[in-house]
Amino acid sequence: MRRRQFITLACGAAVWPLAALAQPDRLRRIGVLMNTAEDDPQSKARASAFVRGLQERGWTLGGNVQIEYRWGAGSAKLYYQYASELAATAPDVVLASGGTAVGALQQITRTIPIVFVGTTDPVNRGLVASMARPGGNTTGFVEFEFSLSGKWLELLKQIMPNVSRVVVVRNPSLTSGVGQMAAVQTAAASFGIETTPVDSRDIKELKRMITAFARPPRGGMIVTLSGTAIDNRQAIIEVAAQNRLPTIYPDRIFVADGGLIAYGPDPVHHFQAAASYVDRILKGEKAGELPVQAPTKYDLAINLKTAVALGLTIPQELLARANEVIE
């Protein structure tokens, strides 16, 4: 595996002692409600990035801060159960991953500050009043903007110029799923491409529909971003491979697990960035007065082994732009 990643390193180590002295003496409590499973490889990376961001600002686990984790693993029922459990621990702030987790927390408390990551369209979902002035007890970092969905189609055209049909894996129960699908359809119309939606929640039906879709030639697939797609990524990657469908994914973890190409914001980076808002809230700022931030860093990942298996040649200019190439 060859990785070409460009990471900006902050020279924060030298100021950690000073930052630590600035922290309050009493132990502060942070709740974390994740939308992934505890044993998911990405869970550890994201949790570690958050802790690293706290350490850069002078917070020490077991010293001046304590973190209580809950792992929702894509289950709405668990989100509400764990939201209640975390609120009962009286945390100073809660970090929540995914819009459903945030909604569950907001139903439990309107006073405990909430910082979200992995969430799309928070205004239309009713999680915040506006991006600039969230209001209430919630703010955070938007996972991506809908315009990104059109970029996925452009990438598919680059690797498969004769593509004329695209099956789009999405979760129709989410506003983000509807928004992403609409963006793909708009872009597809400009390319003269026909789109077919398929629900990411029902794996059996998803496999059946994708297999049927793949029989005629010149087909491709786009997987939109959702917790269900991430949870079911192994099944989605397998059905794409079995049907030899060139597929664009929304997160590099799909490519690490054998998917062809992924383009989207780096969720691990968002967890580290979220520590900055948690730090500011612990120091007395109000969540509702901190503006919701849009993503600023997008990564392109390509799995050349998968490309070879599909008989595809990835354009050299695309390889040159990639942040990560798996060979």
Description:
With 327 residues, this protein is of the alpha/beta class. The chain contains 13 helices and 13 strands. The chain has 2 domains: 173 residues, Rossmann fold (3-Layer(aba) Sandwich); 145 residues, Rossmann fold, CATH 3.40.50.2300. An 8-stranded mixed beta sheet has the order 1-13-12-11-10-9-7-8, sandwiched between helices. Helix 5 crosses helix 6.
Please summarize what this structure is.
The chain is an alpha/beta fold. The chain has helices spanning 16-22, 41-55, 76-88, 99-108, 148-159, 175-191, 203-213, 227-231, 233-242, 252-256, 267-282, 304-309, 316-321; strands at 2-3, 28-34, 65-71, 93-97, 114-119, 138-142, 165-170, 194-199, 219-223, 247-249, 261-265, 298-303, 324-326.
CATH class of the largest domain, please? Alpha Beta
Please count the helical segments: 13
For the record, give the distance between the C-alpha atoms at the N and C termini, rounded to a whole number: 5 Å
Major sheet characteristics: 8 strands, mixed
* Shape field: elongated
The CATH architecture category of the largest domain equals: 3-Layer(aba) Sandwich
- Element-level helix/strand string: EHEHEHEHEEHEHEHEHHEHEHEHHE
CATH overall fold name of the largest domain: Rossmann fold
Strand-pairing-aware structural class: alpha/beta
* Mean pLDDT over the residues: 89
Entry keywords:
327 residues, 41% helix, Rossmann fold, 2 domains, alpha/beta, disordered N terminus, five-stranded parallel sheet
